[in-house]
Design brief:
single chain; 157 residues; alpha/beta; Rossmann fold; 5 helices; 36% helix
Length: 157
């Protein structure tokens, strides 16, 4: 089995002018998206050895709400706040061993770029969406790309 990186973009948040960017909160819809993402990943049988989150409020809350179904406690990781790269992603995944399965919760455009850098795929990463990347050796393969409405259907069949 290869290592897997799962990326969860934070749910819908308050407008940019509502408060300083690091303090922006999830909307009620964003909270629902976050819970649905966690429930859907749980329903799919995806188990994580670690969950890392951006320290920004909207990402921390997304991680906390997703972990209600997934279990565990999210760990803040400063690089996820801004400038998260494929190298950062590989470092988090390989820290736990060759078969580690890690969930990271953060932001675009970083996440779309990480998926592209690891797999060559260009993705439209929706707020509250999930991408799964299988990593083996130097190669990455996109194994899942789920929009919030798909996650909701999986979570609440």
């Amino acid at each position: 089995m290869a290592a897997q990186l799962w990326l969860l973009r934070h749910g819908e948040a308050e407008p940019h002018d509502a408060r300083p960017d690091p303090e922006r909160r999830l909307t009620a819809r964003g909270e629902d998206q976050s819970r649905a993402a966690g429930a859907a990943l749980h329903a799919l049988g995806v188990v994580f050895q670690a969950v890392y989150t951006s320290p920004k409020v909207r990402a921390r809350d997304t991680a906390r709400l997703a972990c209600e179904a997934l279990g565990g406690e999210p760990i803040e990781h400063a690089a996820l706040a801004d400038g998260f790269s494929a190298a950062d992603a590989r470092e988090l995944v390989t820290a736990g061993g060759p078969e580690e399965r890690v969930l990271v919760v953060g932001h675009n455009p970083d996440f779309a770029q990480v998926v592209h850098d690891l797999t060559g795929a260009r993705v439209d990463f929706k707020k509250g969406g999930v991408a799964g990347v299988r990593l083996e050796g130097g190669a990455g393969e996109l194994v899942a790309l789920l929009r919030p409405r798909e996650l909701d259907r999986i979570a609440r069949p």
